[in-house]
Design goal:
This protein has 233 residues and is of the alpha/beta class. The chain has 7 helices and 7 strands.
Length: 233
């Protein structure tokens, strides 16, 4: 029963993370929102009709902070049934122009953050032999793209990590879904695409619906990955 599930979502203050949070809340789940900006998380929480919501600020690139916050989440709200690794950042330019700070930011948040948060839930999920991990990866984890070299590198890393843990968990009942999607209508693309280009991007609510449909528990089958492409970009 979804009503008894506890869902934790990183990068939940906007875009796909917020869409998934609202949809899981509508399903009756207790939703824990994680992100760096409390006001954005609170704004999403205020949209929920249910009071089964918790908000914690978190920098996923800090292993100490991830360990501390996830321990507090479990103490406050119990076992984590579903983890959505959605936090991400992108800096786009030709390879030689990307600064070391930008390189660190993308590798630390996109790749290391996903690893740290996954590590925080795996032992308990293994102990109970149940749980779901949704990795929001982007089509940048599938093929290289101009002006996205380091972003792609970080997402290729998440892909390799995810494919490996799927194999590690093959003898368990823990479900891992890798979601590779193109651009969505979010603030992520404000300084990258024109206003006209953004109009043709995918709606986060549509992408959230597709993810939820494919992660749903079904007898005798599992969906290890989905690719959601945009028609225009």
């Amino acid at each position: 029963m979804m009503e008894s599930k506890h869902v934790v979502i990183t990068g939940a203050g906007s875009g796909l993370g917020a869409s998934l949070a609202l949809k899981y809340s509508e399903m009756g789940c207790h939703v824990t929102l994680l992100g760096r900006t409390f006001s954005k998380l609170r704004h999403v929480a205020d949209k929920m009709e249910s009071d089964k919501v918790s908000v914690y600020t978190l920098d996923v690139s800090s292993p100490e902070e991830v360990s501390s916050v996830f321990a507090q989440i479990k103490e406050d709200n119990g076992n984590i049934d579903i983890l959505v690794n959605n936090a991400g950042v992108g800096v786009f330019d030709v390879a030689e122009n990307i600064t070391s700070d930008s390189v660190d930011q993308m590798i630390d948040i996109n790749l290391k953050g996903t690893i740290y948060c996954t590590q925080a839930v795996l032992p308990e999920m293994k102990e109970r032999n149940e749980g779901t991990i949704i990795q929001v990866i982007s089509t940048a984890g599938k093929k290289g793209k101009p002006s996205e070299s380091v972003y792609c590198a970080s997402k290729f890393g998440v892909r390799g990590f995810t494919e490996s843990i799927v194999k590690e968990l093959s003898d368990t009942d823990i479900n891992v879904l890798a979601a590779y999607m193109g651009g969505m209508k979010t603030s992520f693309w404000d300084d990258i695409y024109t206003e006209e280009e953004i109009k043709h991007l995918m709606d986060p609510d549509d992408v959230a619906d597709i993810i939820l449909a494919n992660v749903k528990a079904r007898k005798y089958l599992t969906v290890p990955e989905i690719v959601i492409k945009n028609h225009k970009i």
